[in-house]
Amino acid sequence: MMTLIRGIVFKKNLHFSQLTRFTDDTLQRPFVLIENKVQQLKDYVAKWLQFQSLWDLEAEYVFNRLGDSLAHWQQLLTEIKRARTTFDTAETRKEFGVCMVEYEQVQARVNAKYDAWQRDILSRFGVKLGNAMKEMHAAILKSRNDLEHQSIEGIVGGGARRF
Fold this sequence. Notes:
- By secondary structure, this protein is mostly helical.
- It has one domain (24-156).
- It has five helices and four strands; from the N terminus they run ββααααββα.
- It has helices at 28-49, 53-56, 59-66, 70-83, 104-158; strands at 2-5, 8-11, 93-96, 99-102.
């Protein structure tokens, strides 16, 4: 015979009256172990809940915060790659003792949203990098022309000037 108390099923042969015979510290270790498992479970779920911000973030806000600093863009792309290891796995559930978190559906949604963000960020980074390369090329070309012009003037005018 089974008994249901507050959503927990107990076998009939378990005597709750025996629990009062234990000293307080007898149950301390099991309680600590259970609390540790619950904390591990909370930490794991919190890790997944962080990805909820992907839906809350405004892309333009992120891009404005990054500005034109290529180093900031590269750092963000590196962090995206590192964070991806959390959910980019073949596993679809994680067990914490008797508790189990099944995250297959969430994993698929997060993967899709992450892919969209990563594509958008890479695209914008590519534009920023392309512009920076064009500016660098123009600066190098201008410096080269300036040097060549000075060299020609020095050669042509150098023979006429004698001290």
